[in-house]
Amino acid sequence: MVKKLYSDAASALEGLLFDGMHLCAGGFGLCGIPERLIDAIRDSGVKDLTIASNNAGIDGEGLGKLLRTRQVKKMISSYVGENKEFERQYLAGELEVEFCPQGTLAERCRAGGAGIPGFYTKTGVGTAVAEGKEVKNFDGQDYILERGIFADVAIVKGWKADESGNLIFRKTARNFNQPMATAAKVCVAEVEEVVPTGSLDPDAIHLPGIYVKRMIVGAPYDKKIEFRTVRQRETA
């Protein structure tokens, strides 16, 4: 069996990173993001990255770290509202942005992973999303052509894996991690725990190990919160 477990994020990414590459990054906000792998990409100094991700993290966290070091050339995202540096770079013309409806982004990654180069959807018809895209009419309704996404490397965050790379995602951390893991030539995963092969219930596995080429144990993690909202303590 091919050894998939690496000692750290830098070694797991060795030989995979290059300037101008295309990355798929799992996560939603700060939930289920591959923190250790993002740090290793930052430390590598690789630049001119095109990254497909639901969002770009927040200032100084998640993919926001790569924005801060100016390593990102283009973002393909559906939501970017919590990152001031993202906003600044975009408005200054320093960052190329391809906005993509959230469901469409998930399907573009799923399609890319399934070997489907494109598909038609009604989402975005008649809006700026449709500009420059082929429009086709089916049964009297217009649909726009969206291209599948297939990257050089996918980085994802799992909860538990076995030594063969079979992954389980924890609750909402499943989000974009599952489709993006399939949408690249190489998937590198970081997980909280690795157990012996055969220890996981086959019916509980979310991502088969055939997709995971390399992985690391990234634990322990600090739980980061995007917005901390509290109410005043009631007094007698």
Description:
The chain has 236 residues and is an alpha/beta fold. It has one domain (9-122, 147-217): Glutaconate Coenzyme A-transferase (3-Layer(aba) Sandwich), CATH 3.40.1080. The chain has six helices and 13 strands. The protein has helices at residues 9-12, 35-44, 64-68, 84-91, 102-113, 177-182; strands at residues 22-25, 49-52, 72-77, 96-99, 118-121, 135-138, 141-147, 151-157, 160-162, 167-168, 184-191, 193-195, 212-217. Strand 3, helix 4 (84-91) and strand 4 form a beta-alpha-beta unit. It is globular, with a radius of gyration of 19 Å. The N and C termini lie far apart (65 Å).
What integer value in Å does the Rg equal? 19 Å
Total of DSSP H or I helical runs spanning 4+ residues: 6
State the helical fraction: 10-25%
CATH class: Alpha Beta
Number of structural units classed as domains: 1
Point out poorly predicted stretches: none
Strand order of the largest sheet: 4-3-2-1-8-11-13
Strand residue percentage: 25-35%
Order of helices and strands: HEHEHEHEHEEEEEEHEEE
Distance from N terminus to C terminus (CA atoms, Å) equals: 65 Å
Number of strands: 13
Shape: globular
According to CATH, what is the topology? Glutaconate Coenzyme A-transferase
CATH superfamily grouping: Glutaconate Coenzyme A-transferase
